[in-house]
Amino acid sequence: MAIMEIGGRQITVDDEGYLVSMDDWNEKIACALAEQEGIDELTDDRMAIIRFMRDYYKQYNYFPILGSVCLHVHQPDKCVKQEFMHPLKAWKIAGLPKPPDVVLAYLNYGQVPT
């Protein structure tokens, strides 16, 4: 675990940079997390993706299907990859907990391990 100081607040992240408590998240935190992930600016399109991911996770407690993210935020197919290079960057910037291994395997390798 590591402590980040952002805007006068101390935020705890795990060893991979995921927020320990998603309640610590706000847009300043998102900007700091984005910077750590090599994302210079959180544009309106990027923030729409991040907000949708947060709302989806709060409602379903799971990672959304990437195509549905783009559909719901009215952006082109594969918008998450276009805006963030990898969906896990968006997930991390959204302040959500590390996804389970099955989701990581699917996102990293395109398939669930057997």
Give an overview in words.
Helix content is 49%, strand content 9%. By secondary structure, it is mainly α. It has one domain (2-109). The protein has a two-stranded antiparallel sheet with strand order 1-2. A hairpin with a 2-residue loop joins strand 1 (2-6) and strand 2 (9-13). Helix 1 packs antiparallel against helix 5. It starts with a strand and ends in a 5-residue tail after the last helix. The mean pLDDT is 90.
The separation of the N and C termini measures 31 Å
The radius of gyration over CA amounts to: 14 Å
Order of helices and strands: EEHHHHHH
The largest sheet is: 2 strands, antiparallel
Q: Got a strand count?
A: 2
How many structurally independent domains?
Answer: 1
Cα shape: globular
Number of helical stretches of at least 4 residues = 6
Strands ordered across the widest β-sheet: 1-2
Query: What's the overall average pLDDT, rounded?
Result: 90
Low confidence ranges: none
What structural class should be given to the helix and strand makeup? mainly alpha
Query: How much strand content do the residues show?
Result: 5-15%
